[in-house]
Design a protein that fits this description.
Layout (H helix, E strand, L loop, with lengths): L1 H22 L13 E8 L10 E4 L5 E3 L5 E4 L5 E3 L1 E4 L6 E2 L3 E3 L4 E8 L5
Parallel strand pairs: 1-9
Antiparallel strand pairs: 1-4, 2-3, 2-6, 5-8, 6-7
């Protein structure tokens, strides 16, 4: 009889704990993910060849990356706002886009063409 009472009390405590956890989760609800993306490719304006290793930045943010072997870059989860994208590469003039307005759930695809510096 004593064993049955202990098992019954244990089951009741487990049931109460489960209901409490379900109603009060330990972790807060996750913030909605940003689906704002700026992507593009950087090319040599004269030859049309892709440029590898170009530094690409989003002005006014800490976002910075480098182009891959195909000259491509991607910035994901960009906060909504207005930005310029800037490209910098050795022996090429700096390139800056016109302001881009980023809204929720948008993809911006850019083609940046860079010119070599005159010697």
């Amino acid at each position: 009889m004593k064993a049955k009472a202990i098992i019954l009390v244990a089951l009741m405590l487990v049931g109460i704990s489960t209901v409490t956890i379900a109603n009060n989760p330990a972790e807060p609800a996750a913030a909605p993910a940003l689906n704002n993306t700026i992507t593009g490719v950087v090319l040599d304006k004269t030859t049309g060849e892709s440029l590898t290793g170009v530094e690409v930045r989003v002005e006014g943010t800490d976002l910075k990356t480098y182009t891959d072997f195909d000259g491509k870059f991607v910035f994901e989860n960009v906060k909504a706002g207005e930005y310029k994208v800037m490209a910098n590469y050795i022996s090429y003039g700096n390139n800056e886009t016109k302001p881009i307005k980023v809204n929720s759930n948008e993809l911006h695809a850019l083609n940046l063409q860079m010119e070599t510096l005159d010697k």
